Amino acid sequence: MKALIVDDDVVSRIALMDLLSVYGIFDLVEAEDGAAAWDLLAAGLHPVIVFCDVRMPRMSGIALLERMKGDPHLAQVPFVLVSSASDRDTVLQAVTLGAVGYILKPLHAAEARAHLEKIFRITLDKLAEDPATTMRRLNIGPDRLAAYLAAFAEQLLAGRVDIVALLDAGEGADARLRIDSVHTGCMTLGLWHVASQLDNARRGLPDARTVALVLGEVSESVRRQLTRLRAGMPDEGVLA
């Protein structure tokens, strides 16, 4: 899952990236201002969340938010404003436009983490179901869910090469059946974001490169879900 960090102040940008990297949730992509960020989005980048400064040359954070909200492919991407306290009116404007939260500059680690964790509670369950909810839905315990996720990871490891080979050989129908099986696994395990990506990838004539990239994202989502699960398990229940 990619997170886009947009800030013309390189020190602030690096500080936020360092703070986010501690969580191990996202692949971080950076842009030096709103215009550079929009170029990345227009070229096909589809982040799961955007962290964006307010005041920047060429395109402000508010202008970028407005553009994203006007694009049906990007309108639902969570947008977090990174602002100074003097931007209070701008923050209120951004929230009205649909921003999910804000982080104050200069960054103070403890305060920023508190805001981030609140934002993650709002956004992450839309990307992948909380493991506790998955366990209740499937009526299983943590060890069993860990086994499901591990088995799915093995399926992906073996199946990714086969699916790409089928697409390269022009066997789109057979490849689509394999992709459908992966999609079912994603839905069963509550991996909503990558399931949606698979939906898009399998439409029409699936492209081998695109499908390979999405399957890589599925594998990463499984790994992250295992990490989330293990973080909530007692020591004796953690699988090696």
Automatic annotation (TrEMBL):
Family matches, as InterPro entries: Bact_response_regulator, CheY-like_superfamily, Sig_transdc_resp-reg_receiver
Residues forming the Response regulatory domain are: 2-120
UniProtKB keywords: Phosphoprotein
Q: Which Pfam families match?
A: Response_reg
List residues modified as 4-aspartylphosphate: D53
- Any coiled-coil regions, as ranges: none
Do the record's keywords include Phosphoprotein? yes
Q: Which SMART domains match?
A: REC (SM00448)
Q: Kindly give the Gene3D superfamilies that the UniProt entry links to this protein.
A: 3.40.50.2300
Key word Phosphoprotein present:
yes
**Domain of life of the organism in this record?**
Bacteria
Q: What protein am I looking at?
A: Response regulator
